[in-house]
Design brief:
Layout (H helix, E strand, L loop, with lengths): L5 H8 L3 H15 L1 H4 L4 H18 L5 H14 L7 H9 L3 H13 L2
Helix pairs in contact: 2-4, 4-5, 5-7, 6-7
Length: 111
Amino acid sequence: MFEITEEQEALLRLPDPSTFFPKLTREIRQEYPQQTGHLDERALMDEVVRSHDHAACSLRITHLPVLVRWVKADVAWARGLRAVPAADMWMRTAKNPNLAAADLLSNLAGH
């Protein structure tokens, strides 16, 4: 019998990238026009895809609202969040990555 882990199941429940990425890209462009104005549509989509893949696959963020907030932060209002070593280490060692990401994003938004 084929068995998958809880983490694999959570990744499988995420929206279909072919429809999700374009919608998220448009949403980010609408919400953060100043922060994304220097990127053309293809470059912004590429940033969204890279950010999403890093968050979902490397950091194990699978709760959709948190994942969306992470991508918006990384691509727009906290550019390059995925490249911050302290954030990366904290997320990778977190027992609950979704909770850790929500906490980090709340702290960042408060500053």
